[in-house]
Amino acid sequence: MSSAQTLAAGFDDPVSDSARAFRVILDVMSRPGRVTQLPLLPDAPDSLLGGAAAVALTLLDTDTPVWLEPSLRSEPVSAFLAFHTGAPVVSGPEASSFAFMPAADCESALRALRVGTSEYPDRSGTAVILVDGFDAGLSASLSGPGIDGSTVLSPTGLTENAWLALQDNAQLFPLGFDTIFVSQDAAAALPRSTRIELKG
Question: Whole-number mean pLDDT of the chain?
Fold first, then answer.
């Protein structure tokens, strides 16, 4: 099957829709752990989920190398990203600016992501973790900038080892990578500055 036959359309109005999605992404990054509905969902390949596709269309471009966990790699996804974003696909998470991965299989990729350097802390990666929801997973208590006291996040499918990798990442601050969790229609974020305490 050709990419032309399988290409998902993306946003209906690429300029205004991506601008609205960008505002949501900024909002969740400034309020760690807060789950927010995405206002507009693009037509997207099934394996990418609508939320992940919205993030891709909003944040990726020709200067942002992207890595896809093997289960997300398919002709429809590759064609979608190539046509709508032009982002180069790289062979490993350590070479990416954005790494897309399902929650159930993300620990090794999280531990391989770029965390920046003391001279250039901004030269780090961003993890985009695909989840089935935000209310049925292992819970963690979050605190730090943007959080009044503490809040709890429970992304479905995220393993304890993955949480530990995120916890280790937080201890690197001001180095470290940022994380965006996406479901089919919502998003939440975990900036590197957020402190994480596993519950239970």
Answer: 92
